[in-house]
């Protein structure tokens, strides 16, 4: 009677292995498809938004590997000749391994949920958790029962080798060698993917630190002026007195620097009784991701500045690459600009043209040098976006600033997925010859101020 009940239990446990196997195969196919799709979009940044595709790609790699492990567990022949103590040790080690992976994938899920910027990553981590849980279930099921009504799904391991040996002694030796090699490779891969999971946890932990820097300003939905009917949420912060006749300062930079970089300046102006606005461009900070076809500020800039309810004209302050943005805006909308102030602003491409003049290069030599620099930066951005950001290694590339009250926040934003994938997407635009508009004269009502930071020789030597 006991034997009959046990046999029935083994039968039902064995039957449960079939849906586990089917689910694993479906997840394996999904992971492979995900790798193909994400891999295809790594060059174009995405089907709709400019997003770091490597985050999803690496998660699909994890899903594919652990799904393959489930298939391996389900289809691997048993070995009735193996000593029981070895079978118990193998079972415990396997359960501990997948238990650790299950906990790690749950941590990934929590961290990506906390960050709130990658819903696709949340979905992938859920699938990874499920497949790791099924791996544990599959191991336990195989321990208690063979697949089906007391019949192995595929022959016993020792029987397989016996059959091969009967056919050919040489083939038996080769088969055993391949079998041992496969086991060693699988163990190494498990170890590698355990480290890999730890790196992804580090990357998701860095992304989740966004909760340490809550939004200080407001979001406004800005319609794009490209006729597409689309809009973007832009994060901005305006502070200072609204009464009186003083003008509002607007601080502008390139697609690297968001509101946090100007926060201390804004606080200083507020203390002086002046009003100012700072903001995150789309693709930075708390603003929405850039759309795939957005390469500069032209699609949102005018609508944004006329939607935030500030008194015009603006006193526009451009820092670095922001100088070209405010100059172009002043040319197109002089009625909205009171004055322009350039902070360390130089003509576009001066780092290349200065080398051409210094070394007396021909145009062909100049173009070769410029293209080499562009390829070098693309490679660097590829390493950052593909490895450093997803794996939490941005401290290698981004140091902290000790000169501002919000230095940690600036460092955080400079380490995020958005900042670097956005920089990468506008790299070609930054390298293009966009300085022709600087030859056009501004309206005489707009005053221009130029501020160039002065440093001594020791500073130049230290920082260049």
From TrEMBL:
Q: Which organism is it from?
A: Naegleria gruberi
Keywords, comma-separated and alphabetical: Membrane, Transmembrane, Transmembrane helix
The organism sits in which domain of life? Eukaryota
Regions that span the bilayer = 20-41, 53-73, 85-109, 121-141, 379-398
Q: InterPro entries this protein is in? A: AB_hydrolase_fold
Q: Can you name this protein?
A: Predicted protein
């Amino acid at each position: 009677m006991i034997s009959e009940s046990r046999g029935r239990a083994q039968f039902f446990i064995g039957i449960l292995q079939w849906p586990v196997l089917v689910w694993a195969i479906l997840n394996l196919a999904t992971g492979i498809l995900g790798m193909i799709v994400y891999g295809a979009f790594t060059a174009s940044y995405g089907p709709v938004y400019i997003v770091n595709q490597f985050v999803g790609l690496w998660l699909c790699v994890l899903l594919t590997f652990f799904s393959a492990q489930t298939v391996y567990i389900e289809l691997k022949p048993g070995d009735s000749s193996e000593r029981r103590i070895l079978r118990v040790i193998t079972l415990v080690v396997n359960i501990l391994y997948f238990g650790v992976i299950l906990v790690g994938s749950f941590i990934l899920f929590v961290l990506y949920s906390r960050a709130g910027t990658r819903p696709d990553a949340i979905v992938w981590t859920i699938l990874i958790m499920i497949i790791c849980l099924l791996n544990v279930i599959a191991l336990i099921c195989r321990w208690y029962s063979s697949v089906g009504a007391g019949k192995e799904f595929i022959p016993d391991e020792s029987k397989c080798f016996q059959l091969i040996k009967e056919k050919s002694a040489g083939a038996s030796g080769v088969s055993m060698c391949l079998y041992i090699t496969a086991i060693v490779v699988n163990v190494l891969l498990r170890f590698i993917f355990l480290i890999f999971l730890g790196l992804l946890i580090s990357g998701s932990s860095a992304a989740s630190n966004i909760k340490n820097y809550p939004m200080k300003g407001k979001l406004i939905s800005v319609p794009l002026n490209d006729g597409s009917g689309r809009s973007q949420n832009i994060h901005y912060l305006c502070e200072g007195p609204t009464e009186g006749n003083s003008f509002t300062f607007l601080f502008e930079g390139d697609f690297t620097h968001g509101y946090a970089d100007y926060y201390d300046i804004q606080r200083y102006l507020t203390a002086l009784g002046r009003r100012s606005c700072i903001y995150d461009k789309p693709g930075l900070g708390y603003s929405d991701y850039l759309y795939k076809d957005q390469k500069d500020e032209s699609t949102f800039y005018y609508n944004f500045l006329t939607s935030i309810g500030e008194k015009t004209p603006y006193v526009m302050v451009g820092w670095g690459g922001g100088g070209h943005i405010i100059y172009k805006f002043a040319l197109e909308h002089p009625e909205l600009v009171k004055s322009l102030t350039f902070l360390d602003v130089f003509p576009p491409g001066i780092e290349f043209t200065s080398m051409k003049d210094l070394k007396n290069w021909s145009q062909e030599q100049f173009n070769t040098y410029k293209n080499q620099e562009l390829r070098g930066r693309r490679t660097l951005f590829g390493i950052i976006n593909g490895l450093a950001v997803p794996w939490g290694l941005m401290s290698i590339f981004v140091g902290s600033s000790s000169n501002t009250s919000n230095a940690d926040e600036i460092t955080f934003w400079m380490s995020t997925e958005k900042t670097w994938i956005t920089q990468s997407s506008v790299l070609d635009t930054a390298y293009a010859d966009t300085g022709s508009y600087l030859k056009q004269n501004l309206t005489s009502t707009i005053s221009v101020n130029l501020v160039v930071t002065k440093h001594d020789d020791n500073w130049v030597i230290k920082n260049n």
